[in-house]
Design a protein that fits this description.
disordered C terminus
């Protein structure tokens, strides 16, 4: 930490000078640091320094490739790789495979993987894994992807990433029952596989078996906690690519579906105790749980936070905030929000208001009915309270 602090101090004091000279290793360290911390302004400056002094250097080009991959500029990645013109390097070949798949150039990707397969390189499993993930995630040919997953699984039957892709592909084919059978079969062999429990939970949630979904998410969280250092598969038997909060989020959604608002709030508070919740969608659920438990003051502040952030332009957010304003004696603010919402969302705000103020509301109700009921509700509440 002390070394990076010194390097950062030097960087900030010299980056705008005519000759901000840094050693190659220092440039790479700065690029990695700014990329990980999301400091894109300084990342750009570090890259420019690298281009100025090390534009033809292999190590710098690889680092630059990783940045372009993070920014989803896959054409740029391929252009840099072509300028390096080296085949047989695991890092570069993985970057090429990923980029071709992201660009949906599956024919080129398949030819490239086939070439590496003929050479029987020692990192072939990693390349095939990335190809299978890319084709299954970004391709339109679900059956073609399924056939390639099967081939990959025959070659690497213990590869967890490929196993996960098989389950996802089966679900894409609307074969939820088969996907769940594979989940259960694999979990019998490896009951501590976090991602499998989580994916099983999501499938159960999608087919509206929410109790089973919640149970699966609970198992995923228990397995996550039992593994003190979860790392991306397939490097470790108990590895995972899920984060604890992504599993919690899925559990919260399932709890809300069965109106388990108190339990959902308990999960939220666990998350909040560890770090600030910045995801606007998750905060929306948080506020809705507070409302369901008649804790309107807390819900109000969360809705206001979401509105202020500008990250979620949704009539439901404003409807929830209006409801909280009325319940916390902020009637003037409610009226101002309603005026703003009518301009922004038109009839959607009335539909959202009706649904959020009446738990028994039918989501198929006509917009006109929603508008009349919501308007009457506001008038009655304002005049009678």
């Amino acid at each position: 930490m002390e070394d990076i602090s010194k390097l950062l101090k030097l960087f900030h004091s010299t980056k705008n000078s005519e000759n901000p000279r840094f050693e190659l290793g220092e440039v790479i360290t700065l690029i990695d640091y700014f990329l990980e911390s999301g400091d894109f302004e300084n990342l750009y400056d570090a890259i420019e320094i690298g281009k100025k002094f090390y534009s033809n250097n292999y190590t710098f080009k690889v680092a630059y490739c990783r940045v372009m991959l993070e920014f989803n500029d896959y054409e740029a990645v391929l252009e840099i790789l072509d300028s390096i013109n080296i085949i047989g390097d695991s890092d570069l070949d993985l970057l090429r495979t990923i980029s071709l798949c992201r660009l949906k150039k599956f024919e080129q990707a398949s030819e490239f993987v086939g070439r590496l397969e003929k050479e029987n390189c020692d990192y072939l499993e990693d390349v095939i894994e990335e190809y299978v993930i890319g084709e299954n995630s970004f391709g339109d040919d679900v059956i073609g992807a399924y056939k390639n997953i099967q081939k990959a699984q025959e070659k690497y039957p213990d590869n967890k990433a490929i196993q996960i892709q098989l389950i996802i592909n089966l679900y894409k084919q609307e074969k939820a029952s088969e996907a769940l059978d594979v989940c259960r079969e694999l979990l019998d062999k490896d009951p501590y596989f976090v991602d499998l429990w989580s994916i099983q939970g999501r499938i159960y949630s999608d087919i509206k078996e929410f109790d089973k979904a919640i149970e699966s998410f609970d198992f995923a969280l228990a397995c996550f906690d039992s593994n003190s250092n979860p790392i991306p598969y397939p490097n470790d038997d108990n590895s995972c690519v899920e984060t604890k909060n992504s599993i919690r989020k899925s559990k919260i959604i399932s709890l809300i579906k069965i109106r388990g608002y108190e339990k959902a709030l308990a999960v939220f508070k666990e998350m909040e105790a560890e770090s600030e919740i910045t995801d606007p969608v998750l905060n929306k659920y948080f506020a809705e749980c507070y409302m369901a438990n008649d804790i309107y003051e807390e819900a109000y502040h969360i809705f206001k936070k979401i509105i202020k952030s500008g990250k979620l332009n949704d009539a439901v957010i404003y409807a929830g905030c209006i409801k909280c304003c009325l319940e916390t004696d902020r009637k003037e603010e409610a009226a101002e929000l309603l005026d703003e919402c009518y301009i922004r969302f038109k009839g959607d705000i009335f539909k959202s208001l009706f649904e959020i103020t009446d738990d028994s509301s039918d989501s198929e109700s006509k917009d006109e009915t929603n508008q009349n009921l919501a308007t009457d509700y506001l008038k009655d509440y304002t005049h009678n309270n």
